[in-house]
Design a protein that fits this description.
single chain; mainly beta; three-stranded antiparallel sheet; 2 helices; 12% helix; elongated
Length: 130
């Protein structure tokens, strides 16, 4: 099955649909334009569609409602989680200013202090990590 994201005029994802491979495949090769034409015949010729994939082989992330399509990097971007995080345009992932500790413990990002707070068993932050 092929998956397609419908975009609004600002490149925000407003819908994600599944199209049968028999529509998108010709001679064993998937063709995005066939899927787009098929969807425009159903939803209107003025609609905008981009193919997406669960395994991130197409456009770096699987599109979801509220994601944005960035044509400059040909990727779907999920909403920025925190104002201090920056987009890595190579991976299409948001990155914190300080990497999360890698020690098998649970942390939550603290936007006020720009640090990772260690989480207690019940989800209560107990201290900041540096």
């Amino acid at each position: 099955m092929a998956h397609f994201a419908q975009l609004d005029k600002n490149n925000s994802v407003i819908n994600v649909v599944v199209v049968d491979n028999s529509v998108t495949t010709v001679n064993g090769q998937e063709d995005e334009t066939r899927g787009i034409t098929y969807l425009q015949n159903i939803f209107g010729h003025d609609t905008i569609w981009k193919q997406t994939s669960y395994n991130a082989k197409i456009r770096k992330n699987y599109a979801g409602f509220g994601f944005t399509y960035r044509p400059d990097i040909d990727a779907f971007i999920y909403p920025q989680p925190y104002a201090s995080w920056t987009l890595n345009t190579n991976t299409a992932q948001w990155e914190p200013p300080t990497p999360c500790p890698i020690d098998r413990k649970d942390y939550n990002w603290n936007e006020t202090t720009k640090t990772w707070d260690l989480v207690a068993n019940l989800g209560t932050p107990v201290k900041s990590a540096t």
